[in-house]
Each structure stands twice: as C-alpha cells, then as structure tokens.
Design a protein that fits this description.
Helix content is 59%, strand content 0%. The chain has five helices and no strands.
C-alpha cells in the first residue's frame, strides 16, 4: 500500500511507544500477537509502526489486549482530546 499525504493508519506511532514502554522488541511483540491469533511477523509490525500498513478494527482490539492498554490509548493524543470534547458536549446536552 502506498503512503498517502494523510495516512489511514494513525495508531502506528502509539503502538511503537507502548511496545518500547514495555521493553519489547518487534519480534517479541509479534510472538505475543500470534498467541492472540494475529498472524503478525516482525516485518508486519514494522510496517504498522511506520504507518505503511493499516490495522483492522479486530487487529486493533487484539493489539490493545497484547499491549495491556485501552484501545483509546492507541489513538494519537489529538484524537483522544477531540474524543473527550465530544463526550463532554454529549454529556452536557444529554
């Protein structure tokens, strides 16, 4: 998949940060992903982290499980802030 000006994969950098925080190599994370049923190799993880490969919703769910984090933590900070604002507006209107 060719890289575009606005990558569809917004979670790659967060996955890298969380993997590094857990002191896991890409190879180790790939092994953990395979235990959860994700057919990921080190190369696939490298492409995800570089934003060259998109992540499906089911893969995102399993990645969050493997990384022991809420799915929302896989989103960039600016997207999380937008989400919080939308929740606040919705709660105020409801």
């Amino acid at each position: 998949m060719a890289r575009t000006k606005t990558p569809a994969n917004v979670v790659g950098p967060q996955i890298r940060k969380l993997r590094n925080k857990l002191a896991l190599s890409q190879e180790e994370l790939a092994a953990r992903c395979q235990l959860q049923g994700l057919d990921f190799s080190r190369a696939i993880l490298s492409h995800i982290e570089a934003r060259l490969r998109c992540v499906t919703d089911s893969e995102l769910f399993k990645l969050a499980l493997v990384l022991k984090t809420p799915m929302e933590d896989l989103l960039p900070a600016e997207m999380r802030k937008q989400n919080e604002k939308l929740r606040a507006k919705s709660a105020a209107a409801g």
